[in-house]
Specification:
By secondary structure, the chain is an alpha+beta fold. It contains 4 helices and 9 strands. The longest helix has 26 residues. The structure holds zinc ion (ZN). Pfam families: DUF4428.
């Protein structure tokens, strides 16, 4: 049986071809930078150096989830950092997951947009909800977490649930900001 070019484990059914041999799935995940790059033309030496770099990078951004609000935002109180998973359906943008230290938090607030519309001959209040988080590292950036991206009735159950979830996010972010102030 053949072995992985990089870790010497026996190769299973799923293997990936590089310039000098096959790579197992675990190694491929790392050297392809999470399946974003092909390795077809890369030599063993090149792949090994990528592997080392990703392992170092993983060490420096180790993230331990100590609090979280669904998949909207994750907190690591041990290392005082937060992670925005930036799922596409919540950001309306193509963003990779991001990690920021608590000390970068500038502001966090709920933004609700409400309109009145006539639906089925009845006047209805409709609204959207997002949480806007402002962070400052080298530059100031703003990130939106959309809880209700499209207008729905403000008296509906999902709207109320999402509004309290949004309040929850703001509270937890504020709490993180205060943790820094204490230190
Ligand atoms: Zn391997």
């Amino acid at each position: 049986m053949k072995e992985c070019l990089l870790c010497d484990r026996p190769l299973k059914l799923i293997k990936f071809k590089s310039a000098e041999g096959y790579v197992c799935k675990q190694c491929y995940e790392k050297v392809s930078l999470n399946f974003t790059q092909t390795i077809k033309n890369q030599t063993k030496a090149e792949l090994l150096s990528t592997l080392e770099n990703t392992e170092e990078a993983n060490d420096s951004v180790s993230f331990e989830i100590t609090r979280k609000i669904n998949q909207y935002i994750l907190f690591d109180d041990k290392h005082q950092q937060l992670c925005l998973p930036n799922h596409k359906k919540y950001t309306k943008d193509e963003l990779k997951p991001e990690v920021y230290p608590f000390s970068a938090i500038v502001n966090c607030q709920i933004d609700e947009e409400q309109v009145e519309k006539v639906v089925k001959k009845k006047k209805q209040a409709l609204g959207c909800i997002k949480v806007t988080l402002v962070l400052q590292e080298e530059d100031q950036i703003s990130r939106d977490i959309w809880l209700i991206p499209n207008l729905i009735s403000t008296s509906s159950m999902p709207y109320k649930t999402m509004r309290s979830l949004a309040q929850n996010i703001v509270q937890e972010v504020e709490r993180s900001k205060q943790e820094v102030a204490v230190c």
